């Protein structure tokens, strides 16, 4: 065969390979999409104290596994113990104040009875003087004086009754349910809660990370000092919009983790995000800012999908947050599904190299 014929044959072979590869790429992107932009993500819970104080003891080490409600570190309790004792004294003082008010109420009621007795006595005296003044037996001055004493006694009754109302208002409800004592008890509960908050606990089961805390550091309330990576993980994969045109929820998937070369794990699609940040509109009163690009071919938009494992479901607990993965989707069956599985196995073997 002449050299030019050999060259033409190789050109034809190359063109055929290119055409087949291009056709395979187009078909694969639609019916067996694959994404290397995949990660394992674990929820991260920031650890911060609810009260401020100096760190007294750190009970855990960095990257240590912890249980929910386990104490991670504690703050200096002395200021909060003093506040708790002060609140207890306030409750005791409120109880004593209530006893004093009870005694004042009893005394005021007794004063009312005494004043009413004086009124009754003076009323009879007025009636006697009125009968005597008609016969001119007593003077008009004595009559006026008796009437004045009677009105003064009535005023004393009203004053004593006002004292009863005043003390009852200060006392509030009977028993331990009055306002003064409830306020003191609420302050006591708050002081006890603040003291309990000096023991900072993990809210979730996971692994402590980025712990830089040492005894003597000052912890500000609400400021994160560490993080706990939750054991439960989520696999997220970013695909081009076109690649998801045939994908539906519960479609099967093959997952290859960089940390587990040579192995392919089964999973399924559980969710596709409703949008991305670039598509978020904020009602901030600003005018539209159209996107300008001088590129002939613009970048494709990627959408996020969420995958769960259907076998080896405990595997994600052993992988760190951010671990890389490759996700192969199987939106259709038949040959496309078989080729997709083959792609996943080839990729898993390549991970032995990189």
UniProtKB/TrEMBL annotation:
Name of the protein described by the UniProt record: Multidrug resistance protein MdtN
Keyword Ribonucleoprotein set for record: no
Domain Multidrug resistance protein MdtA-like barrel-sandwich hybrid: from-to ranges: 44-230
Alphabetized SUPFAM superfamilies for the sequence: HlyD-like secretion proteins (SSF111369)
Keywords linked to the UniProt accession: Coiled coil
Family, similarity comment: Belongs to the membrane fusion protein (MFP) (TC 8.A.1) family.
Top-level taxonomic group: Bacteria
InterPro entries assigned: MdtA-like_BSH, MdtA-like_HH, MFP_Efflux_Pump
UniProt topology in membrane: Single-pass membrane protein
Keyword tRNA processing annotated: no
Name of one Pfam family that matches: HH_MFP_RND
Subcellular location: Membrane
Source organism of the structure: Paraglaciecola mesophila
Main location: membrane
Coiled coil ranges: 105-170
Segments forming domain Multidrug resistance protein MdtA-like alpha-helical hairpin: 106-164
